[in-house]
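Illustration 12: EF-hand domain-containing protein 1.
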Amino acid sequence: MVSNPVHGLPFLPGTSFPDPTKTAFHRSQTLGYRNGYAVTRRPTVGIGGDRLQVNQLSQADLDELAKKAPILTYGQPKQAPPPDFIPAHVAFDKKVLKFDAYFQETVPVSTEEHYRIRQVNIYYYLEDDSMSVIEPVVENSGIPQGKLIKRQRLAKNDQGDHYHWKDLNRGINITIYGKTFRIVDCDQFTQVFLESQGIELNPPEKMALDPYTELRKQPLRKYVTPSDFDQLKQFLTFDKQVLRFYAIWDDTDSMFGECRTYIIHYYLMDDTVEIREVHERNDGRDPFPLLMNRQRMPKVLVENAKVLEWYTAKDFIVGKPLTILGRTFFIYDCDPFTRQFYKEKFGISDLPRIDVSKPEPPPVKQELPPYNGYGQVEDSAQNCFALIPKAPKKDIIKMLVNDRKVLRYLAKLESPIKQDKDRRFVFSYFLATDMISIFEPPVRNSGIIGGKYLGRTKVVKPCSTADNPIYYGPADFFIGAVIEVFGHRFIILDTDEYVLKYMESNAAQYSPEALSSIQSRVRKQEPSAPELGKVLQGTERPMEKTTGRESYCTTRKNKKKAGRQARGREEGRCHYYT
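Figure caption equivalent — predicted structure in token form:
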């Protein structure tokens, strides 16, 4: 048999070689059957029938080897840095444990109590392990209370040991300076802290109550003493003596409520009350004299309509409200006899009259509703001023001064449509009414029916609002100006002679831009009428007189014709000649 040439080499990395003489590489069977069930079995030989190496290590050595850190592979382990040191006065700053406790003291010189239970709060300060005992102050106790033991470290025994928070728990007794305190409960923070430190807390107990304190809480016994009041003496003394009060009942908070005035009579002879209404002329109410008949008034009622207390004279004070049978009356004045009675009987000398008159509410500012878009804004506003609307007032002086004064302008339509570029329009501005009319002269074979384009109306500027409209004025019309009329934009091209004269005579009304357009027109030395006249030519016969205002015919024969020409000029159908 050939021996293994690598036998005896150490089993280290780089020195392990396969055995060339080995020919069997099968593995031993580890499964078998017993009583018809598949079971596993431990192999007795290794791969190829080799002998299995027996582990000679003990179980302790195996455990130690399993727990040994792999220092050779990963090196020496790094030690974690030590935690930062935090002193107790920083870690436990403002952290206090609170315990509820009580102690019992003997009362030897009292016939009503033999011992006394005093409830205290024990505070333990974690920052320096000091303690304090504070007794809550009880009203009218007659005992000095408050801080019983100042904050300090308290001795636990004679050996010099001090109390620690581990010594405190619920349901235990602790002795401090000869007094035994019974701890019954603690707050939530104390409970969470002690449980977090592994201390098992006892169940809480009920706080013991002081018997004498509980006795004082019981209601006092009431003793009813028979009255020695003589009603006959009251009748003889106060006969025909009546207190008179003036009061109001303000019921304005309810629907259809109002503030009404009353007179309250208090009869001193039998303590009865009477309430009378104060009627005014034409107040619209039935003349009932009494609101409530003379009777005694209950002040405090209980079940079954039992009266515990009645109204007396001391309940009627000027300046205070008074509720009688569900109605609250406010007394604002009384008569001189009543003032003298209160001064002598009750010592009340100051009963001034109180002014209960309500000031008039401020006038409501009337505001116009939003403009609805129908007609002029001034016409629509008249519906808010009167039930039957009236026409808005006109400026008569302006109409008389500017009567028959018309400013005429030649304009073109600014439109992207090719057919609208050659259209011309005549703007007529009426100075008397500030209205504008637009006329389009008819052009033969143009395919557009000329005539009245816009009737007389006021045109609003596009920058104004419907509630506060701003209308076009004479200052807005000049050569080169853009006029927007209900969504259509027009460019002023020319004016007539009267417009030029009007602008020169009223230069203060126009802007420098408008005046510069006049100056440029004059420099060109072109009369303003020819272009406008060419557009508006309708007849061959010239007018006898051509002006910017009106043309008059002196002959009776042409009177009707002059009237037609005047109406035509108002619409823009006038003739201009050089």
